[in-house]
């Protein structure tokens, strides 16, 4: 195996897998979660702010500290949102709109606090002075005027319409035009001053409250939440796709690994076979070299038997021509030698195209085209046939041939390059 | 009153040193302490302080005590954080008058100061750590332990009958509409001169000041035009509430206001010499 492509492929594969793994993690998930949390926090604090503003307006909340904490909390939530938002133009614009709405809300809250402080104070004073002026010693006319003014003011606290405000100002003007005992003067002046302030403040605060409660931050918050959720969904989908890609890549790599393992096993088996074959041939060679002339035929027969057993053949022959023809044959128990075989081998070898090593291998008789050769081979009940021949230098005369007849096609038949079939290595040639 | 926020003692000590360090001013003649005397009331007794060039500053110096309780800083409420206010004061040509970069060069030129910053922040002084050290120290300048706090905490004997009457009057007259919350003020803006003129008309809208330690911080108002607390109470009642208070009512309210004086490092806050 060439190492250079492998060395180049490994870092590339490593980078690719790292990149896919990174994209599959959905690293933005936490950021979007934090952004959503900030939006939730903003919504919750905004609700608390609205509740407290209404409580303060109703006189049930006497301190503005909660409003200060809530405004600060809104700003903190907004900062957290900014820190966790993406930097694309659409998000930035949406957050800017949201921040603008939040700033407007803060401005309205400050306006409310300032006005409500005056309002609560003037309401208390108006109540105090109207009560004092309604006492009997203030005079019936004055008491009546104050009573009517109080009723109009009460109406204005409930309904700040222009008509109600007009009614209050008319009553205030009416009271101012009245003659009243000098001892009541101070109270009347104070009542008028606070009454006029209330006439201005009540509709104004209602307007501030309406604007505050209808502040566009709710719409902006909803739009921003939708945007963040959309980004989060896209981010999750992308991560899911990359996880799938990572899974498929893993399967591919597993397949490749199995393939490589099988190749490795096949090579190991082949090497083992080759080693066994070479060991067998070395034994044969040793025996033949050490053999006395009269023992050679017996050793050839034994070698034929070993070779035939080794490759699973039914029959094995050695035919030596080019002089007096010598034949050696072996067949498996229960198998007989067919007639005229291997007398026809030299003729067959001449007709088949042998490799440069002199190997002829017919893996399956079914693959042979019809004809005499097939008939001859079929007549010998062959499934497949292998032959190693050694010819004279002119190539005309077969001087020796080892032929193995296998009863069935051999899908895993030894390849021609197997040393067992190399005529040059065969001690018999 | 909440306790001061927990802070690194090294940073607090460094902030305290910086607070008194005249190298923070352009000509080396003043430090934060020059106008904010923490040995007395956290401010000074001047009606209006002088700028570096000798001219008069437009607004009375507010106390640094309990400034961390306020929702904004300064009379105009133009700073949200102590860091921002400190940064502005350092660079304001009429206050400390130098750029922070120059101040940092001076501080970095001193090995001891560099070591102190290193111990507190792990590196030599820079803009962020300089402002953080000062602000951290200022956040610690709270004055708990007032008699009013003790009374709110359940100590019925902490206030006398007169002071309790003063508190009731403080509420019924309407002072409490603006001066409420943990700082007894300091949590909203309000325009002044609602019914009658109060003081200098500008700026029209002010941060309502905290009344904590108010008995120790004369003169009063943004222009320092009320030399005594009784005058301040009288004028506030007229201008903001359309009320003419009797001397007795003023005394009762002052009696209550005196219960708002807290302690700093165990000692009661006292007025600065005028």
Give the oligomeric state of the chains in this entry, treating copies of one chain as homo and distinct chains as hetero: heterodimer
Structural class of chain B: mainly alpha
Give the tally of β-strands of chain B.
Answer: 4
Instruction: Supply the number of helical segments of chain B.
Output: 10
Q: Walk across the major sheet of chain A and give the strand order.
A: 2-1-5-4-3
Considering DSSP H and I runs of 4 or more, what fraction of the residues of chain B is helical?
Answer: 25-40%
Question: How much strand of chain A?
Answer: 5-15%
Strand order of the largest sheet of chain B: 1-2
Q: C-alpha Rg of chain B, in Å?
A: 19 Å
H/E series of chain B: HHHHHHHHEEHHEE
CATH topology of the largest domain in chain A: Methane Monooxygenase Hydroxylase, Chain G, domain 1
Describe it.
The complex is a heterodimer of chains A (429) and B (274). With 429 residues, chain A is of the alpha+beta class. In chain A, 66% of the residues lie in helices and 8% in strands. Chain A folds into two domains: 3-230, Methane Monooxygenase Hydroxylase, Chain G, domain 1 (Up-down Bundle), CATH 1.20.58.920; 291-424, 2-Layer Sandwich (Beta-Lactamase). Chain A contains eleven helices and five strands, in the order αααααααααββαβαββ. The two termini of chain A are 35 Å apart. With 274 residues, chain B is mainly alpha-helical. Helices cover 37% and strands 4% of the residues of chain B. In chain B, the strands form two sheets. Chain B has a two-stranded antiparallel ribbon with strand order 1-2. A two-stranded antiparallel sheet of chain B has the order 3-4. Chain B is globular and about 60 Å long. The mean pLDDT of chain B is 96. The interface between A and B is medium-sized, with 24 and 21 residues.
């Amino acid at each position: 195996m060439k190492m250079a492509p492998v060395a180049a492929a490994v870092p590339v594969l490593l980078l690719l897998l790292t990149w896919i793994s990174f994209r599959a993690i959905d690293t933005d998930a936490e950021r979007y979660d934090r952004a959503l949390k900030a939006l939730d926090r903003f919504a919750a604090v905004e609700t608390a702010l609205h509740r407290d503003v209404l409580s303060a307006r109703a006189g049930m909340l006497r301190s503005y500290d909660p409003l200060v904490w809530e405004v600060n909390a809104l700003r903190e939530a907004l900062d957290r949102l900014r820190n966790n938002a993406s930097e694309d133009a659409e998000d930035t614009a949406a957050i800017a709109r949201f921040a603008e709405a939040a700033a407007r809300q803060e401005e309205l809250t400050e306006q409310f606090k300032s006005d409500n402080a005056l309002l609560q104070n003037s309401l208390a004073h108006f109540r105090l002075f109207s009560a004092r002026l309604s006492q009997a010693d203030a005079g019936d006319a004055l008491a009546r005027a104050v009573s009517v003014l109080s009723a109009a003011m009460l109406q204005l606290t409930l309904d700040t319409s222009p008509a109600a405000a007009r009614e209050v100002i008319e009553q205030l003007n009416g009271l101012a035009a009245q003659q009243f005992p000098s001892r009541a003067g101070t109270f009347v002046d104070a009542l008028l001053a606070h009454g006029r302030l209330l006439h201005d403040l009540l509709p104004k605060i209602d307007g501030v409250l309406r604007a505050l409660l209808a502040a566009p931050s709710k719409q902006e918050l909803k739009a921003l939440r939708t945007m963040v959720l959309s980004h989060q969904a896209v981010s999750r989908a992308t991560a899911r796709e990359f996880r799938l890609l990572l899974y498929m890549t893993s399967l591919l790599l597993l397949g490749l690994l199995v393939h490589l393992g099988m190749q490795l096993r096949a090579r190991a088996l082949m090497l083992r076979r080759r080693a066994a074959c070479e060991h067998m041939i070395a034994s044969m060679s040793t025996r033949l070299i050490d053999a006395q002339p009269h023992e050679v035929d017996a050793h050839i027969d034994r070698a034929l038997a070993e070779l035939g057993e080794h490759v699973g053949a039914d029959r094995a022959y050695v035919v030596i021509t080019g002089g007096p023809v010598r034949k050696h044959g072996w067949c498996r128990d229960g198998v007989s030698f067919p007639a005229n075989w291997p007398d026809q081998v030299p003729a067959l070898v001449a007709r088949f195209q042998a490799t440069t090593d002199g190997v002829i291998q017919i893996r399956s008789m079914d693959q042979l085209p019809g004809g005499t050769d097939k008939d001859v081979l079929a007549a010998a009940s062959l499934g497949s046939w292998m032959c190693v021949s050694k010819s004279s230098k002119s190539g005309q005369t077969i001087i020796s041939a080892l032929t193995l007849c296998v009863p069935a096609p051999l899908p895993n038949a030894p390849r021609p390059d197997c040393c067992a079939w190399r005529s040059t290595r065969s001690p018999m040639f | 009153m909440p306790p001061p926020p927990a802070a690194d003692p090294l940073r607090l000590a460094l902030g305290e040193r910086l607070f008194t360090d005249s190298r923070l001013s352009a000509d080396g003649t003043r430090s934060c302490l020059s106008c904010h005397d923490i040995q007395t009331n956290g401010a000074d007794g001047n009606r209006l302080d002088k700028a570096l060039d000798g001219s008069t500053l437009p607004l009375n110096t507010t106390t640094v005590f309990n400034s961390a309780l306020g929702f904004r800083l300064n009379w105009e409420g133009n700073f949200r954080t102590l860091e921002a206010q400190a940064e502005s004061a350092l660079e304001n040509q009429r206050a400390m008058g130098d750029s922070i970069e120059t101040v940092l060069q001076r501080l970095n030129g001193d090995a001891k100061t560099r070591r102190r910053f290193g111990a507190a922040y792990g590196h030599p002084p820079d803009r962020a750590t300089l402002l953080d050290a000062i602000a951290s120290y200022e956040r610690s300048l709270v004055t708990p332990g007032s008699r009013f706090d003790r009374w709110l905490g359940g100590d019925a004997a902490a206030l006398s009958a007169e002071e309790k009457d003063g508190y009731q009057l403080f509420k019924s007259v309407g002072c409490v509409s603006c001066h409420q919350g943990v700082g007894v003020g300091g949590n909203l803006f309000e325009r002044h001169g609602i019914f009658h003129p109060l003081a200098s008309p500008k700026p029209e809208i002010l941060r309502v000041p905290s009344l904590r330690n108010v008995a120790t911080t004369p003169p009063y108002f943004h222009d320092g035009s009320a030399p005594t607390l009784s005058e301040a109470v009288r004028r506030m009642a007229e201008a903001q509430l359309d009320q003419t208070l009797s001397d007795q009512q003023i005394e009762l309210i002052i009696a209550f206001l005196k219960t708002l004086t807290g302690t700093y490092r165990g000692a009661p806050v006292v007025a600065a010499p005028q």
